[in-house]
Amino acid sequence: MGVATLMGRAFCRFAKDLGYKSSYFNLVFESNVASVRLWEKLNFDRVATLEKAARLEGVEGLDTAFGYRFDLERLGDDFKISSN
User: Are the beta carbons of 37 and 73 closer than 8 angstroms?
Assistant: First the structure.
């Protein structure tokens, strides 16, 4: 349905409008495929990898976590929340 993408784009727009220069999401777990896909679809840069970061229910062994950063300054003033 695209709700997560819409929320991610809204976050970027509002954060930029509030004067933030960048954003960082940490502990995006490798086993959370939808979350990894979302940040990469939104063009966040993977800037950190923490192997064996946590023991999660339903995941065998220790899961890897990623950190994703977005340079909000690269968003143009014409950036719209909706991709339509």
Answer: no
Non-local CB neighbours of 51 within 8 Å, separated by 6+ positions: 62, 64
Residues constituting the chain: 84
CATH architecture under which domain 3-74 falls: 3-Layer(aba) Sandwich (3.40)
Domain boundary assignment for the chain: 3-74
Residues 5-46: tens digit of each pLDDT? 999 999 999 999 999 999 999 999 999 999 999 999 999 999
| pTM as predicted | 0.87
Please check whether residue 35 is in contact with residue 81, taking contact to mean a CB–CB distance below 8 angstroms.
no
> What one-character-per-residue DSSP string does 38-79 give?
HHHHTT-EEEEEEEEEEE-TTSSSEEEEEEEEEEGGGS-TT-
